[in-house]
Amino acid sequence: MVPPRLRVDVVVPARNAEAALPLILAALASRDVRAVIVVDRASSDGTAGVARDRGAIVVREPSGGYGAACQRAMAHFVELPEPPDVVVFAPADAHLRAGDLAALIGPIADKDAELTIGVRGAGGAMRDRVVLGLIKAVYRHRFHDAGPVRAIRYPALVALGMSDPADGWNVEMLVRALKLGLGIMEVAVGDGTPRARLGLRAAALAGGRSLFHILRHATVR
């Protein structure tokens, strides 16, 4: 179980996810979670209503960008009387198990890590393998997954100064965390369901933004 001393908020970026939301919200259900924030990424279906019906807080990000949705959630945290101690990011289409939340939070609660990365069981796309290989070559750190499921201490999240409004957000977080020297651990998550594949255009854009962040931060001292 997640120690009660931690205020844990979960961010679920969601776009046209009315079918997927019940599954992930059920997996995230825990008395140790203070709030689940579903960020509606300009959905055209009943995503917002499904989220509210299941007790989630709904905020909207009209641009539809993944990174912009995460930043919208961070703006929500700034407005709270008490910000979270730990923020968990999990997109609506993540195939999580009931114990994955505790697995992500455990190393942070034990003060062994500031950032935990969820490693999924199924093999990744070629783009992911190329990105991870480049990170290893440039930063001498091997990640086994660049997936979006992760948990991070809130002060560390603020210190990262995240800025990518689109699908480069996840890689930006990895390279910024390495540059800042955060304690990072990887934990196994998911039920083995194959990862969703981006369309060719979306994959190209995401890969381009990933490359931008890897090379950009490599030149910053």
**CATH homologous superfamily caption:** Spore Coat Polysaccharide Biosynthesis Protein SpsA, Chain A
Class per helix and strand makeup: alpha/beta
CATH architecture: Alpha-Beta Complex
Helical amount: 40-55%
DSSP helix count?
Answer: 8
| Rg calculated over all Cα atoms | 16 Å
Strand order of the largest sheet: 3-2-1-4-6-5-7
Number of strands: 7
Total of domains: 1
Q: Hey, roughly how much beta strand do the residues contain?
A: 15-25%
| Coarse shape | globular
Question: Which sequence of SSEs, written as H and E, runs from N to C?
Answer: EHEHEHEHEHEHHEH
**Oligomeric assembly:** single chain
Low-pLDDT parts are 194-206
From the 3D structure, determine the CATH topology.
Answer: Spore Coat Polysaccharide Biosynthesis Protein SpsA, Chain A
* Biggest sheet statistics: 7 strands, mixed
What does it look like?
The chain contains 8 helices and 7 strands. It is α/β, with parallel strands linked by helices. It has a single domain, classed as Spore Coat Polysaccharide Biosynthesis Protein SpsA, Chain A (Alpha-Beta Complex). Strand 1, helix 1 and strand 2 form a beta-alpha-beta unit. Helix 5 (126-139) runs parallel beside helix 8 and helix 7 (169-180) packs parallel to helix 8 (200-218). It starts with 7 loop residues before the first strand and ends with a helix. Residues 194-206 have low confidence and may be disordered.
